[in-house]
């Protein structure tokens, strides 16, 4: 299936999805509580026990230095001029995230990534590695057997497929040693931060919170941050925040936006995108969008009123004479589908949409990724 054909199917699905009404979402899905966040941890360590697939020490001297330092810390002194040939050791970087409210003794999953030229970490064991935060303090210790994915047998069982072997994971491989202090509920106030800044959504969220908990409970500080008064006791505060996160809010319609992927030819848009009258010529393609005025006449005795209606007409022609015409409330999705129907390439789509935006006919923000 060609990219343009796949794109037509994608846009058809989008058109159906965008036609559906906007449903209410929980505050938990729209916003986060300021200060309740993960903290990134990182550490440098050694993986030992590899089957000859470790770092080549002639090209990674830091691996040898790390082994020498580790041995000295254990009381082992090496003679001067000793040339270590380590094939079963690899220098690695260990990363993980410290979740909010984590306490000492809690275990975390860690990712172990080779930083040298080791061929594989499969079968290795990570030695005790301190995990530090951005402030340089140690918040956890990691150690354990590294599990490496990416190795599997084919359906017939006669072939093996080896993928990326320089990264592995250790489930529950780190233990939290220090908790991050939090100021949740300080001065009996918490702040909610919207995932996407929007004044209308912030206003609706404030109205919903005040409707459920009383006037004056919430107040918007700007288009992203909402201040909420909470109970003084920790138990009551937790119950209050749990109920707060479950409140349904109907978010405001987002601003019109079209996203183009120049590498794959994907075009994604939201329901707020509109078109104005324009004409575009691109290679052997021409696109003309006009607006015609019509009159909507109600049936006799229906009690309705006569109203003026504007319909869009899209006329797309190809040099070989092939014509595609769409009438009645045509949208950008209709334009893209019609272009695909007469064989326009993804690059044709990108060029035409860029031209529409430059001319002011595309009423939407255009983002190219």
UniProtKB/TrEMBL annotation:
Signal sequence range: 1-24
Pfam family, any one: FlgI
Top-level taxon of the source organism: Bacteria
Compartments it resides in: Bacterial flagellum basal body
Principal location: other
Keyword line: Bacterial flagellum, Cell projection, Cilium, Flagellum, Signal
Assembly and binders: The basal body constitutes a major portion of the flagellar organelle and consists of four rings (L,P,S, and M) mounted on a central rod.
Protein family membership: Belongs to the FlgI family.
Role played: Assembles around the rod to form the L-ring and probably protects the motor/basal body from shearing forces during rotation.
Name this polypeptide is given: Flagellar P-ring protein
Organism of provenance: Keguizhuia sedimenti
């Amino acid at each position: 299936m060609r990219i343009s054909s796949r794109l037509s199917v994608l846009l058809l699905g989008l058109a159906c999805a965008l036609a559906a009404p906007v449903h209410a979402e929980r505050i938990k899905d729209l916003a986060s509580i300021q200060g309740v966040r993960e903290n990134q941890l990182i550490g440098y360590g050694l993986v030992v026990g590899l089957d000859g697939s470790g770092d080549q020490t002639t090209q990674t001297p830091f691996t040898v230095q790390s082994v020498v330092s580790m041995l000295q810390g254990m009381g082992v002194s090496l003679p001067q001029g000793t040339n270590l040939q380590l094939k079963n050791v690899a220098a690695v970087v260990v990363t993980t995230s410290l979740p909010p409210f984590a306490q000492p003794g809690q275990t975390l999953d860690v990712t172990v990534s080779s930083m040298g030229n080791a061929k594989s970490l499969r079968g290795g064991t990570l030695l005790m590695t301190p995990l530090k935060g951005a402030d340089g303090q140690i918040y956890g210790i990691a150690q354990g057997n590294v599990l490496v994915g990416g190795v599997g047998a084919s359906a017939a069982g006669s072939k093996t497929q080896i993928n990326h072997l320089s990264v592995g994971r250790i489930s529950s491989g780190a233990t939290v040693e220090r908790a991050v202090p939090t100021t949740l509920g300080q001065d009996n106030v918490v702040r909610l931060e919207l995932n996407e800044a929007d004044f209308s959504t912030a206003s609706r969220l404030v109205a919903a919170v005040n409707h459920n908990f009383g006037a004056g409970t919430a107040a918007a500080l700007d288009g992203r941050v909402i201040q909420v008064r909470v109970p003084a006791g920790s138990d009551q505060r937790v119950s209050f925040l749990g109920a707060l996160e479950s409140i349904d809010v109907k978010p405001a319609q987002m601003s019109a936006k079209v996203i183009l992927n120049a590498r794959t030819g994907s075009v994604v848009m939201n329901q707020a995108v509109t078109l104005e009258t324009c004409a575009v010529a691109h290679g052997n393609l021409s696109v003309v969008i006009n607006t015609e005025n019509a009159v909507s006449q109600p049936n006799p005795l229906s009690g309705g009123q006569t109203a003026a209606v504007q319909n869009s007409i899209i006329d797309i022609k190809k040099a070989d004479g092939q014509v595609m015409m769409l009438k009645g409330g045509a949208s950008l999705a209709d334009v893209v589908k019609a272009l695909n129907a007469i064989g326009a390439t993804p690059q044709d789509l990108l060029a035409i949409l860029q031209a529409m935006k430059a001319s002011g006919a595309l009423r939407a923000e255009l983002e190219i990724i």
